[in-house]
Design a protein that fits this description.
Layout (H helix, E strand, L loop, with lengths): L1 H6 L17 H12 L8 E10 L24 E13 L2 E6 L5 E4 L16 H18 L4 E4 L19 H10 L11 H11 L6 H8 L3 E4 L14
Parallel strand pairs: 1-5, 5-6
Antiparallel strand pairs: 1-2, 2-3, 2-4
GO molecular function: nucleic acid binding
Organism: Phytophthora megakarya
Protein name: Tc1-like transposase DDE domain-containing protein
Length: 236
C-alpha cells in the first residue's frame, strides 16, 4: 500500500491550522496599514497576551518503563488566568527577549463556559485596563517609550465614549449628543432623527488602551484577525 501511495505521489502530512479567513483582503489591508505605522524604528517592541492553565494540566503522554502505571488526576482542576508581556530588543546585533518585570499576573477563574478552551470571559475591559496602565508606567520607567503589540480581543479595544446604538434610549442619545456639542431636546426629535444626528457627530473611533498608552509615550499596534503568527508570544 505504501509503494502504491508513493507512486501516486500521495504524502502523509499534518493538517493546516491556519484559519482561511486570515487571507481575506480586509486583513491584507490591515497588514499594510500596520506596516505603514512602523515609522519610529527606534522603539523597542513589547508583545502581550492572555492565557490560562488548569491545576491538573499535564502532558497527554510521557515516557515510562514497561509496566509502570501513570497516575493522573481525574479532573482538570481549578483554572487560573494568566496575563503577561514580553520585551524584545536588539543588543550587539543579536535579538533578545525577556519578560517585563512584574507583568506576569494570575488569578483564579470564576466564570465557567460551555467551551472549555474559551477563557476570554474571565477578562474584562476594566480588569485589563488596570493591568495595562501599570504595564505602561513600568515600561516607561524601565525601557522608555515602546511599541506595544496586542490582538483584537474585545477587552483590548474598549472604545472611549462609544456612540449610542439604535437600542439605546432617547435620553441616553440626547445626553451623548450634548457631550459632543449638539443641542437637542428629547421631545423635539424622533429616535430615527437622533440616530442620524449621532451618525453625523460621531468622532473617529478611539480605544482606551491607545489613549492610556499615549499618556506614557507608547504606541499601540493591533494584529489583524486570525494572524496569531504575528504575535511571537503565541509561541510560548
Amino acid at each position: 500500500m505504501r509503494d502504491e501511495l508513493q507512486r501516486m505521489e500521495v504524502s502523509y502530512v499534518r493538517g493546516r491550522k491556519r484559519d482561511p479567513r486570515a487571507d481575506h483582503e480586509v486583513n491584507e489591508q490591515v497588514l499594510g496599514q500596520e506596516d505603514a505605522q512602523y515609522i519610529n524604528e527606534e522603539l523597542p517592541d513589547v508583545y502581550l497576551d492572555e492565557s490560562y492553565c488548569n491545576v491538573n494540566h499535564v502532558a497527554p503522554a510521557t515516557w515510562l518503563t514497561r509496566n509502570s502505571p501513570r497516575y493522573v488526576a481525574s479532573g482538570a482542576g481549578q483554572r487560573y488566568c494568566i496575563v503577561e508581556a514580553g520585551f524584545v530588543f536588539v543588543k550587539h546585533g543579536r535579538l533578545h527577549g525577556e519578560w517585563v518585570q512584574g507583568s506576569i499576573k494570575t488569578w483564579v477563574s470564576h466564570l465557567k463556559t460551555s467551551d472549555d478552551t474559551d477563557y476570554h470571559g474571565n477578562f474584562t475591559g476594566e480588569l485589563f485596563e488596570t493591568w495595562f496602565g501599570d504595564l505602561c508606567k513600568n515600561l516607561l520607567d524601565t525601557y522608555g517609550p515602546c511599541r506595544i503589540h496586542m490582538d483584537g480581543a474585545a477587552y483590548h479595544k474598549v472604545m472611549v465614549d462609544p456612540a449610542p446604538s439604535s437600542s439605546t434610549s432617547k435620553a441616553k442619545m440626547v445626553e451623548w449628543l450634548h457631550r459632543h456639542g449638539v443641542t437637542v431636546s428629547i421631545d423635539g426629535y424622533k429616535k430615527k432623527q437622533l440616530e442620524r444626528l449621532i451618525a453625523q457627530a460621531k468622532p473617529p473611533t478611539t480605544y482606551k488602551t491607545v489613549v492610556l498608552a499615549e499618556l506614557y509615550k507608547h504606541e499601540v499596534l493591533y494584529t489583524p484577525p486570525y494572524h496569531p503568527e504575528l504575535q511571537p508570544i503565541e509561541l510560548i
